[in-house]
Amino acid sequence: MILSASILDPHLGLIFWQFVIFGLLFFILTKYAWKPIMGALQEREQSIDDALALASKTRQEMQDLKSGNEKLIAEARAERDRVLKEAKEAGDAMIAQAKLDAQKAGSDEIEKARAAFTQERVNAVAALRKETANLSLEIAEKILRNQLSDRSAQEKLVSDLMADAKLN
Q1: 34, 40, 75, 87: which is deepest, by most CB within 10 A?
Q2: Please, where are the H alpha helices in the chain?
Q3: Closest C-alpha to 157, from 148, 165, 149, 166
Q4: Counting beta carbons within 10 angstroms of the beta carbon of residue 140, is it exposed (0 to 12), middle (13 to 18) or buried (19 or more)?
Q5: Does residue 148 sit in helix, strand or coil?
Q6: Which pLDDT value is given to residue 1?
Q7: Domain residue spans of the chain
Q8: How far apart are CA 16 and CA 24, in angstroms?
Q9: What pLDDT does 136 receive?
Q10: Distances (CA, A) of 39 to 27, 45, 49, 52
Q11: Distance CA 32, CA 36 (A)
């Protein structure tokens, strides 16, 4: 029955050979497999670190770009506000200048109209005086013809004129 011993029973020979096989397997794995596995693990760890560093760097660049964009937007808004303010001021100045020009042109036209009216009035008064003088002369001529047709009326007129001349 000793021959029917189980493999699971620990015997000194079995333990020895297990240590020898384990040592040989350990030596082979250390010599040929351990370095490539560790190299691959270190490579993987390095690539993960590089990816994390790149992500961090990219995140920082995105933050910088975002703040740069916000700054550019703020500058663009300020420039827009400045341009709008200048345009409004220029428009107001143009409107004010146009009003002044219109007032000046209106004043000039009013002055021209007044001058023309004054000249027309002077001309009308002069024409009226001339016409009045002509009418007065015609009336006086007609009256004198009627009065001077007889001799006694002529003598009376001459004596009246002489009396007026002495009084002045």
Answers
A1: 34
A2: 12-28, 35-147, 151-167
A3: 148
A4: exposed
A5: coil
A6: 39
A7: 39-161
A8: 12
A9: 81
A10: 17, 10, 15, 20
A11: 7
Q: Quick one: 9 exposed, middle or buried, by C-beta within 10 A (0-12, 13-18, 19+)?
A: exposed
pLDDT tens by residue, 55-97 = 999 999 999 999 999 999 999 999 999 999 999 999 999 999 9
In whole angstroms, what separates CA 23 from the centre of its chain? 86
Tokens of 131: 């016409």
Query: How far is C-alpha 127 from the geometric centre of its chain's CA atoms?
Result: 62
Structural contact between residues 154 and 148, judged by C-beta atoms closer than 8 angstroms: yes
pLDDT in tens, 107-150: 999 999 999 999 999 999 988 888 888 888 888 877 777 766 77
Structure tokens at 87: 């345009």
Q: Kindly state the helix (H) or strand (E) to which residue 3 belongs, with its residue range.
A: none
| Predicted TM-score of the model (pTM) | 0.40
Interatomic CA distance for residues 131 and 167, integer angstroms: 30
The answer to whether 5 and 11 have CB atoms below 8 angstroms apart is: yes
